[in-house]
Design brief:
There is one protein chain. The chain has one helix and seven strands, in the order αβββββββ. The chain is α+β, with helices and mostly antiparallel strands and 122 residues long. The protein has two domains: 34 residues; 79 residues, Immunoglobulins (Immunoglobulin-like, Sandwich), CATH 2.60.40. The longest helix has 33 residues. It is rod-shaped.
Length: 122
């Protein structure tokens, strides 16, 4: 009688094992299918050069998480001083489980085209 019970337990454990492994494999492939088009990216050029005094109209960024467009959740932060030559940035973040802590950047380079000096090569 003990052997029959032991065989039954082994069969049940084997079935449970097959079920768990099947669920894990199925979940892996399903998640891969759902997230295959996910993206968090800057729209347009990641580096933009403008003249001193000009302004830049930000094109923004887009985010797709688990197949859903969450671009409306993107927050942008910038430190641009359009009256001063230099390199500035626009930082994009999104509050989402998939992209938590990930940042995307656009670099804005402001140059003074009226004050260019020729570099003399000796």
């Amino acid at each position: 009688m003990a052997k029959k019970k032991s065989l039954k337990n082994r069969i049940l454990l084997f079935i449970l094992f097959v079920f768990v492994v099947g669920a894990i494999v199925g979940g892996y492939f399903t998640a891969g299918h759902i997230t295959r088009n996910d993206v968090f990216e800057v729209i347009g050029n990641k580096e933009v050069t403008i003249s001193l005094g000009e302004t830049y109209q930000d094109e923004g960024a887009r985010a797709i998480s688990f197949g859903k467009d969450i671009s409306d959740k993107i927050v942008s932060e910038e430190n641009i001083d359009y009256s001063t030559v230099g390199e500035y940035y626009i930082k994009y973040t999104v509050d989402d489980i998939r992209y938590n802590g990930i940042e995307r950047y656009r670099i804005i380079i402001i140059v003074d085209l009226n004050n260019e000096t020729e570099e003399v090569i000796p």
